[in-house]
Amino acid sequence: MAQHATKTARFQAVTANTVQQGEVVYFAENGAWQPRLDQAIIVEGNEAAQALLQKAQRPDAELYVVNMYLFEVVKTKNGFKPLSVRETIRAAGPTTRLDLGKQAQGE
Amino acid sequence: MYRYDEFDQQLVNERVAQFSGQVARRIKGELSEDAFKPLRLMNGLYLQLHAYMLRVAIPYGTLSARQMRKLAHIARTYDKGYGHFTTRQNIQYNWPKLAEIPDILNELAEVEMHAIQTSGNCIRNITADQYAGVIEGEVEDPRITAEIMRQWSSFHPEFSYLPRKFKIAVTAHKNDRAAIRFHDIGLVAVKRDIGEKNYEIGYEVHVGGGLGRTPFIAKKIRDFVPKAQLLAYLEAIMRVYNMLGRRDNLFKARIKILVHEIGEDEMRRLVEAEFAHIDAAKILAVPKQELDRIGAYFAPPNYESLPAESDILDKARSTDKAFDHWVQTNIVDHKIKGYAIVNISLKPIGGVPGDANAEQMDAIADIASQYSLDEIRVTHEQNLVLPYVKKHDLKNVYDMLAAQNLATPNLGLISDSIACPGLDYCELANARSIPLAQEISQRFADLDRQYDIGELKVKISGCINACGHHHVGHIGILGVDKKGTEFYQLSLGGAGDETASIGQITGPAFTGDEIVDAVEKLVTSYIDLRQPGERFLDTYRRVGLTPFKEQLYAPD
Ligand code: SF4
After folding, report:
1. Which end of chain A is more exposed for a tag (fewer CB within 10 A), N or C?
2. Element (H, E) at B189
């Protein structure tokens, strides 16, 4: 499996999959899990990233989500984007089926 | 085809009820993910990149038309309208919702199907030659043995927590289409002369083959195990593995590593010692009556007496070039006069290898009902087979397939690649596989060019787990990850058939932009190097890696 974040990562966010559908979600304001990366909390630096992950790992979190982890994002002129191909595909959907996944919903 | 008896049906129904309760408790929060994960895996339910994935077992790759219709119905009702046929002759759904899994499993149980033992460290779905029962030169229908093994291995309490997953494949033909030498156990049915022109059927037993991180060709540890003793012998292998297989290291836990570490002779000695005990107890001796009962399910159908050649077929071939190509490429000789084995390519140019949508599945079911005695097979190369088509019906079958984009005439050609789901779906992937298969098929779409190239098996895996069998591709492609970017490593000269070989890595990996050009360079090298009649693999075996490598890495 590909690495999610390197030690030198600058910006990071927390992602997971929902229990109900396995859908990709991101940790957002007010402890919510949102389907789009532009709704995610992005933090700078490793310490802040660890703190964000801890905040996401509330005891009741696994009622809603599983497979939670930090991953690296990069700043672009259109906002933050995932660094890795893996996270880009998770955020959008299969590259071979543009009619499926979040990309199909215009997200 | 085998039909469930009351015990089979009860076992499946009870398991569906049990797992339905577990799903409900997970959703309510009464089961933690840690507790639930092993339970869902035992029922074939994975969590992938975008959603859950349900892997449904297709025992030895045989399906009835009714079952195929149900698979179409599930794709349409609970998923996103399609399914993916895998290299283990199973089908995977990529988008099921957790709460609907019990409904899906209930629907599957109605047609004698399930997702049990399609994951986890147990004996997985047993695979077999897709031409079982219909190909000339077979010792017997290998599905009889596969079914006996299915019953023995289903819910076998001693083998529910093996050191690692365990895969068995069986064939009864000298031409190995089931890649038996790359399974934990591979069986070949053979005949033994017992005098006075009589013979006995038994099995050649190969152990410790596999792909993945450390590929090995299986070692033959027995030339002949009599049929009635087969389960005792298999149980002996499983016991040796269960006792000695490494549980301390995930990467060393498969039986191939055990066989490699202790050696073929010691493995044989241990298995024989264990076998002697089990055999003496006689509890696993399969009574002739039971062998006959199961064998009867696979008895040849009532074939019609037909002329060997069909005028209707000949005429259609002479007037329809596309049909003629399809017959030439996708049809295999049947053992019965006047019949044909039809291969349905699930590799349309630019398509996703192994994917079929609900409409296609329904159409295939209809064709099977009308023209193939209700039966369909799934191949480990991610295609389908209609095993009982009369030659004079071939044109009708072709027209119906063509209407669904299912008549691509490319069996065994470069556009008939195997590709695992890769990074488009798979949680474990390093790189995408499907887009490469699509791009390769588009690059080589010209049929005359494909025919000129001849047999060339391209196999693509998105990570070292090798679900796309890249080690045994004539050209193998392995996706690797370099700091979140996709790279592809090439290997050459692999073969999954009876001439089993593991491909050799060519050298440094290629980027996604370079890899299809690299494949084309290999093809060009082959065309320059080949001698008359040589396939890619033959040329490679004659000249070795160096000339290909020189071309591949030569500066442009
Ligand atoms: S080979 Fe790797 S990427 Fe491909 S399906 Fe298997 S685990 Fe996933």
Report:
1. N
2. strand B185-195
